[in-house]
Each structure stands twice: as C-alpha cells, then as structure tokens.
Amino acid sequence: MRPFSELPVFRMLGVVVLLGGLVGAAANLVVVQRTAESVTGDVSRLRPAQVAIVPGSLVRSDGSLGEIVRARVEAGVALYHRGTVDALLMSGDNSTASYDEPGAMRDAALAAGVAPEDVFTDYAGFSTWHTMRRANEIFQVTSAVVVTQDLYAARSVDLAHAAGLDAQGLLIGDGGRAGREWLARVRGLAEATIRPKVTAGPAIPIDGDGRRSWAEPLS
C-alpha cells in the first residue's frame, strides 16, 4: 500500500498550494515594484497635492483613536500645516451607528487645529479600494498623498492609481501583520485590474466645504 504522500490527490494538492504561492508572490512583487517610485518616508520629497487621504483603522469604544490610525491622522495634520496638502479626507468604516471611524478622525484633526471646512469625511470607506475610488468619484480628487504605515503603502497607492488618482504615499512607520497584507495585495491587484464598483453618492468636491460631508454639518 502506498503512503498518503504518494497518492494522486495529495500530489495535486501540493501542486495547487505551490501554484497559489507563486501567484501570490508574483502579485506582491508587481504591487511593490510599480509603486516603488511613488512612496517615501521623506516629507520634503512630496509634491503638493489637493488632499491627504487618511484611511481608517480601529477606533476604541470610547471614541479614542487606536495607535495605527492616530499615527495616520497626526501625519496628515502635519502635511496640512506644512502646506503640502489643502485638505484632509478621513475615510473609514461607519457601517453601524455605534462605530464611527471617520467622525473620530475628523474630531482629532479639528482638535489639532485644522480648519473645519478643510476636513472631509467618507463614511463608506469600507476597504482601501472603496476609499480610493470614492475619493475620485465622490470627492472628485485628482491628486493626493496617501498617509499610511510602510506595510500598507504599496497596495494603497496602487489602488489609488487604479482609481484614477495622481497619488503619492507617505510612509509613517511600522504596523500590522505582514502575512495578512501579503494576501491583501493579491486581492488588491485583482481590484486594481477589475475595478469593481463601490457605494455611490452625491458629489462633494474636495475644493468645496468639507462640512458638507459630515454626518452632522455645522449650521
């Protein structure tokens, strides 16, 4: 009797795993290589842009920002005060009434001295692709600096390019799990190729008043 390792089904499974690994590695290589010239950790190398896109991440139950998103907001605010960008676009998850990433990010930016009219909120940034495509379609962004951790920058900028943005990436340090991001880049490459539709809505031009995008605009 042949051992299990020699049975055809196990050989086929091994081939499938090997091919999957090769496809994943190739996808990661493509995403990283084609964005290499568009990402930097040196603020002085960034070209001026309309907006800093700040992708959401964990907001605690008390409304305070988690470490990853706090670093993103602080870097975006710094770009605004430096004059590199004219506005901030806070894009994240608000799929339930009790969880509001964009609102918490907006409040942090306002507390840091950003003018209310220059802070935009996207409550349907359910994924990086949603964030980038909606930036172009809803907020009519053409140029942006995507502010995110080193690990996520290549995929984020690649998706921004696919969404039609002249995008640069600002690297702001470590964060996240490399294995999970390895898989996310495979999905991201598929999204950049297929360009699926995202949640629609009325236009809120980035050169207008950001308060129009708030769930509770100022009167």
TrEMBL record:
This is ElyC/SanA/YdcF family protein. Residues 51-167 form the DUF218 domain. InterPro entries: Cell_Envelope_Assoc (IPR051599), DUF218 (IPR003848). It comes from the Bacteria. Pfam families: DUF218. CDD domains: YdcF-like.
